[in-house]
Design goal:
Length: 34
C-alpha cells in the first residue's frame, strides 16, 4: 500500500496540474475573445 504522505503529495500534484490547465484554458479563451 502507498504511504499516506505519498498519497497526499500525489493528490497535491494532481490538484496543481488541474488548476494550471484550467487557468491556461481560461486565459486562452479570454485572449481569443478580447
Amino acid at each position: 500500500m502507498l504511504q499516506l504522505s505519498n498519497l497526499l503529495i500525489l493528490l497535491l500534484l494532481f490538484v496543481l496540474l488541474t488548476t494550471g490547465l484550467v487557468f491556461s484554458l481560461f486565459w486562452i479563451i479570454k485572449k481569443i475573445k478580447s
